[in-house]
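Replying to the earlier thread about multi-chain prediction with a worked example.

Input:
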Amino acid sequence: MDDKQTREGQKDPGGIVLTDAQKRAQRSRSIAIALALAALVVLFFIMTLVKGPGVLVRP
Amino acid sequence: MSLISEGANVGAPGGAGLVDASLYEPSNAEVGDYIALLKPRVMSLVVFTALVGLAVAPGSIHPFEAFTALLCIAVGAGASGALNMWFDADIDALMTRTQRRPVPAGRVRPGEALAFGLTLSGFAVVVLGLMVNLLSAALLAFTIFFYAVIYTMWLKRSTPQNIVIGGAAGAFPPMIGWAAVTGTVSIESLLLFAIIFFWTPPHFWALAIYKKSDYGRAGVPMLPNVAGDAHTRLQILLYTLILVPLGIAPWALGYTSALYGAVAVATGAAMVALAVQVYREVSPADRACRHLFAFSILYLFLLYAVLLVDRGWGGLIAKVAA
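Result:
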């Protein structure tokens, strides 16, 4: 077993098993990415409403 | 010498082609660590100066477009910060001011910081170009490139003029804000650029004098480490003497009211007085430098805040109403 993997997480035949702290960190990162993507969708949607057909014009 | 090999590794740029096993370890980075990579305090100043550029520019912009422009400028500034922290992790680890940053502290891996910075840079520039205009997007892309490559990778470690030339990166945001509204670069926006450009050397050299040992330990050739305190103090005074008339120029050229002129003259006089104090104080000039460093932040904030109130506030309301 790799020393570093033992320290940071545990490796089993199925792959690396995350520690609780790593799971929490991963979950919070996933939520942040989801929120950022949702914000981007809302941004594009509102900008399309605001600019109308002009959204295709690049000044 | 490779630029990459001087800085932090992307995984392991100096690793002779070996794959870094740590790349396969689960990440411990929290969301807060990624936010720290964005240098929120620097970002807030960038957003503020960009807002002023946007508000004082002639012409109209939809408030949502203005919000989008500011968001992209903020994200672009944050991305530059992340790229800076990726490359500078080795010297950040040696300085007390920076050793708790996420990369040197080991909470975020260099490769993660690099990927984060590049991704955000791409998004910020593309969204600004698609939703606002191409000139502002081009200026933002150049600003990120200038800060991450010209300043961080090249100038910072090679010349004591690093923050003079590199200061341009911090001076671009009001120009980007102006360009977002007008689609042009003009004398007024160049003036906004020049104020921050000439403000940067006295501000950072004051810090560099009292953090000299930190920079010395990291091998960063800041002016006090290379040319000594006395020469740096003279340079601080000279740059302040250029800065203060530039600060007054928007009023002298008739762009603003007497309110801005009065604030620019009064705070400019205080800046000169503090710079003279730094120049005359026998080395180590730590106390005077701390005063100048702190006041220089207030000086820039006041100039831009009064500009916002004086010219921008009415204009901003008119733009929103339009």
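The mean pLDDT of chain A is 80.

Feel free to reuse this layout for your own posts.
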